[in-house]
Amino acid sequence: MERFIVTIDGTSGSGKSTTAKKSADRLGWFYLNTGAMYRAVALMCLRKGILPEDHQMVEKIARKINISFQNVKDTHHVLIDNEDVSVEIKTPEVTKMVSPIANIKEVRKILVEKQRKIANNQECICEGRDMGTVVFPDAQLKIFMDADVDVRSERRYKELKAFGIPAEIDKIRDALLKRDAYDSTRKNSPLKKAKDAILLNTTNMSIEDEVNWVVKKIQETLVSLQNK
Ligand code: DC
Fold first, then answer.
1. pTM of the predicted protein model
2. Pocket of ligand 1, candidates 11, 38, 110, 159: which has the most ligand atoms within 8 Å of its Cβ, to mutate?
3. What's the structural domain count of the chain?
4. 181-216: buried (b, 16+ CB within 10 Å) or exposed (e) per residue?
5. What is the span of the domain harbouring residue 166?
6. Which helix H or strand E contains 35, and what residues bound it?
7. Could you identify the atom of ligand 1 that is nearest to the CA of residue 9?
8. Using one digit for the tens of pLDDT, what is the confidence trace for 110-157?
9. Does residue 132 have its Cβ closer than 6 Å to ligand 1?
10. Residue 119 sits in a domain of what CATH number?
């Protein structure tokens, strides 16, 4: 059988990243965090004083950047060259900058190519906004996650606190709504559910519930493909 790709797309804070990482850990598969790739480009632009409007310079960064992941049990590290930027890419400054950067067509093209290359030879859980619609349209299993905005804000708040990043819940809620609206209405690869994706509403689910649900779906899909 061809290598198995699972796509998980959805709104910010719906639980995508944690669920994708933990499910991949359980199966011994690779977790591909594509949001982190856009964030890494945004971070480099911030460091170099490049504005999102300067498309040519942002594209240059996207082309040159060397992003890698270290998925160790229970931890997920994002590296630019050999520098661990896992915490820095989560700061509000990067979060603010990342949406306009993710709307640059050429930047998407460059990062999509890198994403397909990473997923080429391994079983993968690929998480982002356009995994099921654009990057891996033939994925064997597609999931779209969403949750009530208050629940999502609370989760993001706890996540930032855990990273030691100062946060206020009202500001997080506003930023989440703004980012979802922007990501869903942007011109290039907007956030939307693929027609053949299964909707998972995580409002009343714990992380453990979500992981159990995802792993069960993957196992069911594997069995049904083997029986074909
Ligand atoms: O999942 P995240 O919050 O780390 O994503 C950061 C930003 O990157 C978010 O505003 C949407 C964008 N993104 C995207 O456009 N396409 C992806 N495949 C992943 C993320």
1. 0.94
2. 38
3. 1
4. eebeeeeebebbbbeebbebebeebeeeebbbbbbe
5. 5-226
6. helix 34-48
7. 18
8. 999 999 999 998 999 999 999 999 999 999 999 999 999 999 999 989
9. no
10. 3.40.50.300
